[in-house]
Design a protein that fits this description.
Blueprint (H helix, E strand, L loop, with lengths): L12 E4 L6 E8 L6 E7 L5 E9 L2 H6 E3 L6
Antiparallel strand pairs: 1-2, 1-5, 2-3, 3-4
C-alpha cells in the first residue's frame, strides 16, 4: 500500500539515496492509474538533465531509491 503522505507532487524535487547524488524533478503523478505512476526528470547534482522517465511505477522501489528534498533556510 502506498503511503499517501509521501506521494510525490508535480514540481517537487526528490533526492536519490546514497551512494549517488541525483535529483528527481517530478513532472506529473497519476494516482488514478491502477498502479500509481510518476513522470520525472532525472538530474545530476549540478542540475544537468540525465534522463526523462515517463510513467514509472510508484512502488517500494521508489521510496527505497528516493526521498523528498527538504529545503532549509538560514
Amino acid at each position: 500500500m502506498i503511503d499517501t503522505e509521501t506521494v510525490p507532487k508535480p514540481g517537487e524535487r526528490w533526492l536519490s539515496s546514497p551512494p549517488y547524488l541525483l535529483i528527481v524533478h517530478v513532472v506529473a503523478v497519476d494516482e488514478h492509474a491502477p498502479t500509481p505512476l510518476v513522470t520525472y526528470a532525472l538530474q545530476d547534482e549540478g542540475g544537468s538533465l540525465l534522463e526523462t522517465v515517463e510513467h514509472a511505477v510508484l512502488d517500494r522501489g521508489w521510496w527505497r531509491t528516493f526521498q523528498p528534498m527538504v529545503r532549509r533556510h538560514g
